[in-house]
Structure formats: structure tokens, C-alpha cells
Amino acid sequence: MTATPKETDKVSNIEYFGDPIYTYSLKQGIDDGFLAPYKVVKVTLDIDAEGWRPPKGYVDKDGNPVEDRIYNRTDFDRNIVVEERRKIVAAKITEFLKGYDRFAKEYCFLY
Q1: How far apart are CA 3 and CA 32, in angstroms?
Q2: Closest-CA residue to 85 (of 39, 40, 43)
Q3: Assuming Cys at both sites, which of 16, 39, 58, 79 could form a disulfide with 75, CB separation 3.0 to 4.6 Å?
């Protein structure tokens, strides 16, 4: 059983487990009251739109030199962590939730 089936050129849940015997869609789960409806909040940060290039001689938290290139949205939190970006994301989410139920489970933030 999986809620996140994976089908790529290299990985296949169906190949591994076989064809599904039952599927239950997200919409059906929401309609049946088992899952919370959600609202997508899309935010574009300057660093995501413009990219980020480390200053000359920049090192990571372990003291290793960071490759000198332009990092973009697909790199952040995968290939590189920019702490200031994380702080901005946390502040934006906190700011948004102050006007809503902070414990609601219905928001999906896309950065």
C-alpha cells in the first residue's frame, strides 16, 4: 500500500508490487471526510526567481568551499541550503498562518 506511487525510468512500484487492486483518489478521500481539503499558496521569492551565487571564497557550515555557480530553485534544499532563504520561507509561512488557524492541515506552500 502506498499513498505516493512512483513510476520513473528507474523505479516502478507497479513493477515491484504488481498492478493495484484498489485505488482511492485524493478527491475521494476529501469528499469522504478522511482527508482535509487544501489550499495551495504559491510564493515566489527573489532568490528563487533570480538565482543565487555564493560570494567569492564562500564555504559551507563544515568549512568546505561551495562551487562558484548560479544556484536556482531546483538546487535549494537539495544541492545547497541557503539559511537566509529558509528563514524567509519560515517567516512567510508564519505571517500567512497568523491570519488563519495555525493548526489547520489544509495548506500547501510552494516555494
Answers
A1: 16
A2: 43
A3: 79
Buried b (16+ CB within 10 A) or exposed e, 75-88: ebeeeeeeeebeeb
Instruction: Clarify whether residues 87 and 48 are in a common domain.
Output: yes
What is the count of structural domains for the chain? 2
Q: Which three cell numbers stand for residue 68?
A: 562558484
Which range marks the domain in which residue 7 is found? 1-35
Chain-centre distance of CA 83, in angstroms?
16
CA distance 68 to 55: 8
Cell of 85: 532563504
What pTM does this model have? 0.59
List the chain residues with pLDDT less than 70: 1-3, 101-111
